[in-house]
Description:
Number of domains: 2
GO molecular function: phosphoenolpyruvate-glycerone phosphotransferase activity
Subunit structure: Homodimer. The dihydroxyacetone kinase complex is composed of a homodimer of DhaM, a homodimer of DhaK and the subunit DhaL.
EC number: 2.7.1.121
Order of helices and strands: EHEHEHEHHHEEEHEEHEH
Protein name: Phosphocarrier protein HPr
CATH class of the largest domain: Alpha Beta
Strand content: 15-25%
Region (Disordered): 119-160
Amino acid sequence: MSGVGLVIVSxxxxxxxxxxxxxxxxxxxxxxxxxxxLPGGEIGTDYESxxxxxxxxxxxxxxxxxxxxxxxxxxAEMAVETLADPDTAVVLDAPLVEGAIAAAVAAQGGSDRxxxxxxxxxxxxxxxxxxxxxxxxxxxxxxxEGTAAAAAPAGTSGGGARAEITLENExxxxxxxxxxxxxxxxxxxxxxxxxxxxxxxDGKSVFSLMSLAARKGDTIVVSxxxxxxxxxxxxxxxxxxxxxxE
Length: 246
């Protein structure tokens, strides 16, 4: 794996492993490592475990560290300070689960460490997402998901592009499809906006997309501007057409 790595520091081994599992699903090519609990399985944080996770997660592009409670922050900072180059890692005060997902998606898209860290911090600015995600996930009954999406042809105007897409996958823009959409356009020079129900979201922010609460049967409007606007709209339309690969 290459790119920015992530380390999840928690007092609970199960909690750290769970966050890593979710983040890895959103960003399969990112090194996400857990450092949770004490070596014997007790609740607590272990300096050696954090140090080992830092070393495993760093492929040369640096590491972003997230933690659950104050003493976990202290342990993480101690481990970072003892690295050969402490500047290769940064310990963030950001929401653990939401921050890890946002950071993982940014890292998957090739962002540098500063951008990955900012993505994690920005998760705190979307408090409505937790309820939205829960509501969307609750519609997933484990049945076979719907096929693709119906999309109106993309149009262009003044260097921009636009398309209307009716979501046909079973759970709409819940966490995984939102992450896939964000990743699909991360490398493009385009400002992408997605609208639904009078609300507009940043197409390159997974939590902004999830806040739309767009479900199966809803129509979203994708608009883009910039040098690669048409490519951005085309990628999103094709991704929706594949049912977000679910």
